[in-house]
Specification:
Blueprint lengths: L7 E6 L10 H10 L4 E5 L8 H14 L2 E5 L11 H21 L3 E4 L9 H21 L5 E5 L10 H10 L3 E6 H8 L5 H15 L2 H4 L1 E5 L1 E5 L2 E6 L8 H10 L4 E5 L4 H18 L1
Parallel strand pairs: 1-2, 1-10, 2-3, 3-4, 4-5, 5-6, 6-7, 7-10
Antiparallel strand pairs: 8-9
Helix pairs in contact: 1-2, 2-3, 3-4, 5-7, 7-9, 9-10
Length: about 280
Amino acid sequence: MPSAVRKLLFGTAGVPDSSPQTSTLSALQHLHELRLDCLEMEFVRGVKIGSDTAAKIKAKAAALGLRLSAHAPYYVNLNSDEPGKRMQSQGHLLRAARAAEQAGASCVVFHAGYYGLSSPDKAYEVIKKELAQVLSALRSERNPVVLRIETMGKRSQFGSLDEVITLCQEVDGLAPCLDFSHLHAREGKANTYLDFYRILKKVEKRLGRNALKTVHIHISGIEYNPKGEIKHLNLPDSDFRYDEWLQALKDLDVEGRVVCESPGRETDAAMLKKLYESYVLKG
């Protein structure tokens, strides 16, 4: 396979439904057999992985040539009006990053929280302060795992594109997870080649070319209403223009990982990889 086709790696969020067993170790073998490239381990309901299992996952992924990332628990809310819950959220992120490092994952994706009764500006400042403390702790532990703040699909959630990019500019060690489905659902827009191109160019302009050489992307079909995201769909069952999105990624020479979160995530991931390869091979 030409090296150019390897610029984007495609994989799934969590264990595919078609995997013979529900373990991460089984999923790695199954993804390899499907000729997919990466897996995002789901710690979304808590970090429950032991050190022995983590070591086995690290060795298995390395042997198969698969890249690993992880997703922190869903109940992180760094803008909670209760200091104790903000502290618990810091703990969730730290535990996720420690487990990810043991398993050989390079990054941890997370949802920062909700606006609640705060203004967007106030929420931004609170979340910025909380994240700075988490990242300081990880640096003191010499933990190399990158925290990636995700763009979010509901208007009640902190995580617009501008909020994510600005935080990544201002908080040392923070990087984005670009969820294009969420960006589409949040405003009911961002669904044409030009939209995708402009989003990627904005990331490049404000975070540097390396941000497009090391992307971590989430993708799926998505159902939404005026308040934003409702639920994930398979890509062919949605209005998301994934062909135009892939073309923008190819035209801007984007490199990194694409993690599929569709209900049939392994099917959509394989479809996207095949389509992307056809675009690259056409030149």
